[in-house]
Amino acid sequence: MRQYNFAGAHFHWGETDGLGSEHCFQNKESDTNCAAMELHLVHYLSKYGSLKEAVASEDPNGLAVIGVLIETGSPEYENNPMEVIANNLVHVEEAGTGVTVDESLDFTPFLLDSNSNRVHVYAYKGSLTTPSCNEQVNWYVLKKPATVSEQVVNKFRTGIKDDGGHDLSQNFRPRQPLNGREVKFFDLV
To answer: Which one-letter DSSP state was computed for residue 89?
Structure first.
């Protein structure tokens, strides 16, 4: 069994609610079901000393990313970590800077299906979604999207500026074809 270390989290979003996630699900009702945002919880294989070292290794199992699609609606629980992050975006004053948040962030409720306390995931071998797009990621995309308020998503869309001082409203990689990749479904406890 492989052991991974948590390296960090980041978000992708778009200008509209159906455009922003880097993963979509196909269903019978429509061609695709995409979300307003996507959270990536990035991990690297523990035998490497850092995320950078794992990427440089080109190990096909060097990285594991948990993808959480984020929809707008009525949040399902209190103390939503997305609200804490969104409320602190005003302190990010220019591109490439960050802010330290002194509040704890618990993403656990995003991972569990509130009806069954189970985790349902789609898994496949893929790549990073940012350059250099290395093909060394074990992807685990949660079936159940997390829900946040429209106000939270709008804070991401208008609260961060790009290098030119404009709203950073589209920071996702366009969805890619499967290219023969096998996608598996897991129902975990």
So the answer is: G
Instruction: Print pLDDT tens along the chain (189 aa).
Output: 899 999 998 999 988 888 889 998 775 455 567 899 999 999 999 999 999 999 999 999 999 999 999 999 887 766 678 888 888 888 876 667 778 888 888 888 777 766 667 788 999 999 998 888 889 999 999 988 888 999 999 999 888 777 787 888 788 888 888 889 999 998 876
Q: Find the domain containing 101 and state its range.
A: 4-188
Domain count, the chain: 1
